[in-house]
Amino acid sequence: MKNFFRTLFLILLLIGFQYNSNAAEKVEYLKTDWSFKGLFGKFDRASLQRGYQVYTEVCSSCHSMKYLSYRNLAEKGGPEFSEEQVKAIAASFEVKDGPNADGDMFTRPGKLSDKFVMPYENKKAAQAANGGAYPPDMSVLVKARGGGVDYIYSLLQGYEDPPLGVTLDDGVYYNKYMYGNKIKMANQLSDGLVEYSDGTNATVEQMSKDVTTFLMWAAEPHLESRHQMGFKAIVYLIILTVLVYFSMKKIWSRIETEV
Amino acid sequence: MSDHEYTPKSKFGKWFNDRLPLLTLANHLTDYPTPKNLNYWWTFGGILTFCLITQIVTGLVLAMHYIAHADMAFDSVEHIMRDVNYGWLIRYIHANGASMFFLAVYIHIFRSLFYGSYKAPREIIWIIGIIIYLLMMAAAFMGYVLPWGQMSFWGATVITNLFSAIPLVGEGIVTWLWGGYSVDNPTLTRFFTLHYLIPFLILGLVVLHIWALHVPGNNNPVGIDIKKPSKDTVPFHPYIVIKDGFALLMFMIVFAFFVFYTPNILGHADNYIEADPLVTPAHIVPEWYLLPFYAILRSVPDKLLGVVAMLSAIFILAALPWLDTSKIRSAVFRPLYRQFYWILVADVLILGYVGAMPAEGLYLLVARIATAYYFLHFLVILPVLGFKERTLPLPLSITEPVLGGSPNLAVAKKKSEFK
Q1: Which residues of chain B have a CB within 8 Å of the CB of A255?
Q2: Taking chain B (419 residues) in consecutive chunks of 10 residues, what is each chunk's mean pLDDT?
Q3: ipTM for the complex?
Q4: Rounded distance between C-alpha atoms, residue B297 and residue B291, angstroms
């Protein structure tokens, strides 16, 4: 049996190795300690709330988040604003609704059930306003990029002057973590850009971390319950496996064969 | 087949069984004499059945919430992930379940290769198995298209375009497959329909696969024919049931780890970007389990020949019972074959690796050599080996190899544990 598992392990290792080498670009991303990684990983509530603030005050003027609703902000495992807070947040947005009884469209203050209001009417409008580049929807952005949170976190801090010999067109910026190093989004963050209500010092690093945490939650809103359930499921399986192992030994002891 | 007549004890049981012999079947399945020296590599049959059932059950639930429409598919998957109760769990089980299914099937196939399970009288079991494997690949490919992400769309475009390599009618066939002039909504809806159908075809074939297995009975690590039932066998229940159950639980721990802790590691990040026909991803790669064949496809410079090579790589397996000329089943008694076997394993892993890399320079060269070796193994090495190889003497039975006076008893015992 030992041999069996050794071989199996080697094969798994090889497959795993193949997969890792799949991530072709070998840029060293900036590292930080993410509270949501690991077996018991949870979101840092305060960081999520600050991240939401950065998103609304900075990112949301160009980037939509079409799969999120305001109610999500109050749900368990997320930023967990109080219901009053979220109602106030929702009400601060103008939502287009209708048609009403007269057949006219109208605007009203947002409700919990509304999706996050989009910055542009449609993709074309977004492109027109951004020199042809479409600011991607941020709902699942973290999962849609190879490096995940580390990539987004690094990108936000990766703006530099272009090295000698690299010329940039108008509206194109140099970022050392971007694929091909050319990005159409200008550097958005600068120290003290937002004023955190909890008094945290809004450095570029801090804001990058907070908003990336927020994006991770947006992409995986059930991450916390997934981790909790996973731990229980695996502990349960291990205990059951041990019990079944001893039952198996007992049953096979009736005949003279090793199992 | 165990073949004492079975009569139910109760009167009703007898009445029912005379009309529909389900109880006889149940009795056959529990009593089914199984070689007692089966090692853990034999537990993957049961694990695969578990995988199939898991995929069908989770797939049914997903289908209740999924919308097969080019404009709504991506949104509906996000709806499942966010708003459907435990939708994230069901989807992650289904998505990772596909990978687990292939992991298990590859182990199952390579077990068969090592112990010669495809040889007479088990050719039909083997061929049904290959058909199941083909259907699995079709189902997995179409399933990957359904979320309608970038890799879905471009993967579908690349694979369906392969048919255009067919002379004369190729272009027409591709248009017919697409239901239009590009991969679009009609393609998505038919892929969804077929993705829903294929698992049930597989289920039917699995029944045949097991039926065909129960005629000659299991092969075993020593690879010799055994008398059934005898001291060499144990009844399927409880001996094999509990052992399969134990192995399945170990497998489920690995499975659970993927689902709960790294649910997206086996997928491609680009598939979280909604399909866009105007933007081609930098590298279009299939899922890991198709990479060896993708490498073979790309290693041939000509498109048509590439497709032919890729398909041959699969279909050559169906001819394996006749390509392998050795009468000895188990590699335990075939010292040379054993070495070529491991070279083949390495060769396939290398193909998988280069399949994930861009087809250029050294990667392409390696892919070509590995492709050539793959065919060399089946077309030249195996047939020749059967005639040239000096095999080790076989024991007479599993329990009483001593009677045969085999000098290789120690070898047989040790090797049958498989290293």
Answers
A1: 36, 234, 239
A2: 74 96 95 95 98 98 98 98 98 98 98 97 98 98 97 96 94 96 97 98 98 96 91 94 98 98 95 95 93 96 95 96 96 96 98 94 96 98 95 85 47 46
A3: 0.90
A4: 10
Q: What is the pLDDT of residue B2?
A: 44
Closest residue in A to B263 (Cα–Cα): A226
> Which among A144, A230, A255 is the nearest to B272, CB-wise?
A144
Token pair of A69 as six digits: 């609703």
Q: Measured between alpha carbons, how far is A256 from B50 in angstroms, rounded to an integer?
A: 29
Question: A residues 111-170 near B, CB within 8 Å?
Answer: 136, 139-140, 143-146, 148
A252 contacts B243? CB cut-off 8 A: yes
CA A138 vs. chain centroid, Å, equals: 8
A20 near B CB under 8 A: no
Q: For residue A108, what are the β-bridge partners?
A: A95
- Cβ contacts (< 8 Å) between B102 and chain A: which residues? none
Strand partners, A69: A115
Alpha helices, DSSP H only, in B35-149? 44-65, 73-82, 87-115, 123-145
A19·B269 Cβ contact <8 A: no
Q: Which residues of B49-87 are buried (b: 16+ CB within 10 A; e: fewer)?
A: bbbbebbeebbebbeeebebebeebbebbbbbbbebeeb
CA geometry: angle at A10 spanning A5 and A15, to 5°?
125
B-chain CB neighbours of A240 within 8 Å are 249
Nearest residue to B24 via CA among B8, B12, B43: B8
* From B88, B264, B353, residue closest to A18, measured CB to CB: B353
Answer whether 0.95 is exceeded by the pTM. Answer: no
